[in-house]
Every structure is written in structure tokens, then in C-alpha cells.
């Protein structure tokens, strides 16, 4: 197997042009669907992290005779520290969401892909058909879900910070106009937060395009899968890798420039 670049070797790649084209399409679909799943998951996680669910404090206030010690000391003063104070203000929903986010952000994406594919989907039998004639559904879907779950953990923090960046006065003004909590979030807070976080979401899409390259390890026919096929058939390495580099560049560079343009347009709107 040759390890140096020869111009003549690029001719050996021409018969596999269709394979690279299909890999290009798979990579785009994989990235788009992963970001969509990640965004939906991130909305749920961000909502849980910002929730006000304190079951032990509710017990203390609903049944003070039995659980009042969670909020008050034996002397009748309100607790401000200690184990019972922390237990009373324990939010299980926020804890679950925070645990998920920290675990996903602290482990490699390839490990998560293997766990989803070899672990979860070894128990769930998927149909072995193809989409568009060349996408293997039983390999594509686990890759999408794994990348979506990974993206959701990062997008969760982006969405949470975007929501918290909206001035609290906006919420108070909406509530004073008679909007309830859900209406305030839907019509006032979230549209402003989305404007702030849209560039970061677009950046996450670019990151997912690059991270999707590892899905070839579970048989997803993306760009790197085409490289692997050429390497095994034509016994060349660098040339197909350079072709893959060009394809990823054609995906990521315009997306990055689009993000920069989007940020510029948003700053222009803020200066009016």
C-alpha cells in the first residue's frame, strides 16, 4: 500500500465517484437530522434544568407536621444551610438533566455511538432495508440518534444560556399584561433567546458535520466509508483522504461563512 501522493492515483478514485457522492448526501442528512433531534432534546433538557421542582420542600409545606423539619429547625427558624436545607431544595428533574449533560459532554462521541449501536440497538431489531437505494437504515438510524443525543447535551447549555440572557423585565412585563408562564415563554422569552443562540446552533451543525465522520465505524456509508472502500479496493490512502478533505471543506466552509454572515446581520439589527 502506497503512503505517498501520486497524481496518477487520483484516476483510481474516478470509478468510486458515485460512492463519494452518496457519502456526501449521507453526511448532510446525518448532520441535519442529528441537529434536529439534538435541538428537540435540548429544549427538554434545558426546561428540566430551569424547572422549579422541589418535592421535599413541597412535602414540608404541605405536611408541616411530618416534614416541617426540612424547612425549619427545631427552634422554629428557617434553615439556611446544612443537609436538610439542601435536601429540601433538591430538584430531581434538574439533577437528571445535569447528569445527562455532564456524562455526554465528558465521554467521547465514538464511545456513545458504539453504546447506542452495539448496546441499545442490539435489543431493538430494525428493518434492513435502504433509503433512497443506498442508505442502510439499520445503521443510519443508530448513527443519527447517537449524534443527536450528543448534540442535545451541548445545545442544552446553549439554549439555557440564551433563555437566561433575556432580561427578566421582559418576563415581568409579559406577566403584567396577563400572559401565563407558558405563554410568556412561547411568545416573549423564547423568540428573543432563539435570536441570540441561532449562530451557536449553526456552529453546532458545523461541528456535527465533522463529528459524523466517526459513524463509518458502525457501517454508515458516509464520506469516510467511501474512503475506506477505496483504500481496501485500490490500495491507496492519501488520495481518497484528500478527496474527503475537499468534500468536508465544501460542507463546513460555506456553513461557517453563513454563520458569520448571520451573526453580522443579527448585530446590525441590535444596533438599530
Name some characteristics of this structure.
single chain, 272 residues, mainly alpha, MetI-like fold, two-stranded antiparallel sheet, 11 helices
Structural notes for this entry:
The protein has 272 residues and is mainly alpha-helical. It has 2 domains: 7-52 and 92-270, MetI-like fold, CATH 1.10.3720; 54-90, no CATH class. It is built from 11 helices and 2 strands; from the N terminus they run ααααααββααααα. The protein has helices at 17-49, 55-62, 64-67, 83-88, 92-105, 109-119, 137-165, 168-176, 181-211, 223-234, 238-270, and strands at residues 130-131, 135-136.
Quick summary of this structure?
The protein is mainly alpha-helical and 272 residues long. It has helices at residues 17-49, 55-62, 64-67, 83-88, 92-105, 109-119, 137-165, 168-176, 181-211, 223-234, 238-270, and strands at 130-131, 135-136.
Strand order of the largest sheet: 1-2
Percent of sequence in beta strands: under 5%
Q: In which range does the helix fraction lie?
A: 55-70%
Main sheet, how many strands, which sense, barrel?
2 strands, antiparallel
The helix tally amounts to: 11
Based on CA atoms alone, the radius of gyration comes out at 25 Å
The CATH class of the largest domain is identified as Mainly Alpha
Fourth-level CATH superfamily of the largest domain = MetI-like
Q: Please state the average pLDDT score.
A: 87
Instruction: Indicate the structural class.
Output: mainly alpha
Amino acid at each position: 500500500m502506497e503512503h505517498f501522493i501520486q497524481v496518477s492515483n487520483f484516476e483510481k478514485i474516478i470509478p468510486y465517484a458515485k460512492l463519494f457522492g452518496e457519502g456526501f448526501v449521507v453526511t448532510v442528512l446525518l448532520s441535519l437530522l442529528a441537529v434536529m433531534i439534538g435541538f428537540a432534546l435540548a429544549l427538554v433538557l434545558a426546561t428540566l434544568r430551569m424547572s422549579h421542582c422541589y418535592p421535599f420542600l413541597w412535602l414540608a409545606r404541605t405536611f408541616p407536621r411530618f416534614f416541617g423539619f426540612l424547612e425549619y429547625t427545631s427552634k422554629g427558624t428557617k434553615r439556611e444551610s446544612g443537609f436538610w436545607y439542601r435536601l429540601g431544595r433538591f430538584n430531581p428533574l434538574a439533577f437528571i438533566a445535569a447528569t445527562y449533560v455532564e456524562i455526554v459532554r465528558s465521554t467521547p462521541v465514538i464511545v456513545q455511538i458504539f453504546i447506542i449501536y452495539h448496546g441499545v440497538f442490539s435489543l431493538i431489531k430494525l428493518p434492513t432495508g435502504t433509503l433512497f437505494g443506498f442508505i442502510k437504515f439499520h445503521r443510519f438510524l443508530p448513527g443519527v440518534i447517537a449524534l443527536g443525543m450528543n448534540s442535545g447535551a451541548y445545545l442544552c447549555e446553549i439554549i439555557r444560556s440564551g433563555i437566561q440572557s433575556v432580561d427578566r423585565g421582559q418576563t415581568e412585563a409579559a406577566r403584567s399584561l396577563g400572559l401565563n408562564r407558558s405563554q410568556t415563554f412561547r411568545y416573549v422569552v423564547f423568540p428573543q433567546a432563539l435570536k441570540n443562540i441561532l449562530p451557536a446552533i449553526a456552529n453546532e451543525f458545523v461541528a456535527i458535520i465533522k463529528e459524523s465522520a466517526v459513524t463509518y465505524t458502525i457501517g454508515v456509508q458516509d464520506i469516510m466509508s467511501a474512503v475506506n472502500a477505496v483504500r481496501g479496493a485500490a490500495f491507496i490512502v492519501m488520495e481518497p483522504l484528500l478527496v474527503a478533505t475537499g468534500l468536508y471543506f465544501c460542507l463546513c466552509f460555506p456553513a461557517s461563512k453563513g454563520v458569520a454572515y448571520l451573526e453580522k446581520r443579527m448585530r446590525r439589527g441590535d444596533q438599530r
